[in-house]
Design goal:
- This protein has 15 helices and 15 strands.
- By secondary structure, it is α/β, with parallel strands linked by helices.
- α1 packs across α15.
- The longest helix is centred in the N-terminal third of the chain and has 25 residues.
Length: 365
């Protein structure tokens, strides 16, 4: 008899989908063994396009999604989001129980309320992540209120907690049932034929589209760097910015988030917000990066600081975009880039986390 598995995907960003998708693929390699349902909202169309009818889908927002504005984490609106989560999670639970009767395994990338479902289904619950929302809430709001207590309560219910590289030490200390796994990545990277006569740089506006204003502010400056080809994500840029890109020979537009990520394997270095998925791909592919802090976002600060402490990236600040971006880029290319490549090669990061996780979990169900 097939085992019924529910995958709950966070509705935050892009990397959560990539990681869960890779793990689902491992389960699908075992033909006719599992009935898999993906439960999420924001990325459900991407997942349907990828998996087609190999899995089932249930569209519902999993309640937690941070609020951003012009490259800044909006702390007030995000706090209101957590308050809504506290109020609405019981109604969310009732919808899940109404639609799913028998469940053998629940896997989530840190949707906290899913772990309470183990009591209803008498099943195993698994969390896979590089951070948890109780940690996120505590470091940003520094209060031991009812919301934090509820978040902590739910995480403690998880039977298994697999943590990825560069998970904050505080999280590991708070969850004694944790097991470290390697990076989880899609693993199939595109290698494009780019100019060998020039240095190739990818400028990414990541899944949260937090950098559009900063990117637009530097276009008229970087066109002067004729020895560098810039490949730029344009989906969140204005028509004026797109026109500048189309009219300059060293600027190349890239449309689509998936397409933009596909350039990482081929360029010489990357400029991006320090989100975990971008960080993962740069480390696996050994690509030097200039990573940008997101104002107020301490998770992003942790990501970048962890890499910078080991000389695996360089930091670019919002102020650099406003004043001296060309000087910053040339200094990076001359004095930093090659040293970072050497450090990346020495680390030899592995991306087989999804295989590790499946091997561990198939023994449990």
């Amino acid at each position: 008899m097939k085992k019924n598995i529910l995958f709950f995907l966070s509705d935050e960003g892009y990397g959560h989908m990539i990681r869960q998708r890779a793990i689902i693929q491992e389960f699908l390699k075992e033909k006719n063994k599992y009935n898999i349902t993906i439960i999420t909202n924001n990325r459900i169309n991407d997942l349907k396009e990828f998996f087609l009818d190999k899995v089932s889908y249930f569209k519902i927002h999993n309640l937690i999604e941070t609020k951003k504005f012009l490259g800044t984490l909006d702390l007030n609106k995000t706090k209101k989001m957590f308050k809504k989560w506290y109020i609405n999670e019981k109604n969310w639970k009732n919808k899940i129980l109404k639609n799913f009767k028998k469940v053998d395994l629940i896997i989530s990338d840190s949707v906290p309320q899913v772990f309470q479902l183990k009591k209803n289904y008498q099943c195993i619950t698994v969390n896979i992540s590089h951070f948890s929302w109780d940690w996120y809430y505590q470091i940003h709001y520094k209060t031991d209120d009812k919301i934090l207590k509820k978040l902590k309560e739910y995480y403690k219910l998880a039977d298994k907690f697999y943590h990825l590289p560069y998970t904050p030490r505080e999280i590991i200390a708070n969850h004694p049932n944790m097991k470290k796994v390697n990076f989880v990545s899609y693993g199939k990277f595109t290698f494009r034929r780019l100019s060998k006569k020039k240095i190739n740089c990818l400028i990414m506006d990541n899944g949260t589209r937090a950098l559009s204003t900063a990117i637009e502010s530097i276009l008229t400056k970087i066109i002067k760097l004729k020895k560098i080809n810039f490949y730029i994500g344009i989906d969140s840029l204005s028509e004026k910015a797109k026109k500048i890109i189309s009219e300059n020979s060293n600027l190349f537009p890239i449309s689509g988030l998936k397409n933009m990520h596909s350039y990482i394997a081929s360029v010489d270095f990357v400029i991006a917000r320090g989100g975990y998925n971008t960080l993962t791909e740069c480390l696996i592919l050994k690509k030097p990066s200039l990573l940008i802090y997101e104002t107020n976002n301490k998770e992003i600060r942790h990501n970048i600081s962890s890499l910078k402490a080991n000389n695996l990236c360089e930091v670019v600040y919002q102020s650099d975009f406003k004043k001296n971006i060309n000087k910053k880029l040339m200094h990076f290319i001359k004095f930093k880039k090659d040293k970072i490549i050497i450090n990346l090669k020495e680390k030899n990061f592995k991306s087989n986390g999804s295989k590790q996780i499946y091997k561990l979990l198939k023994k449990e169900i």
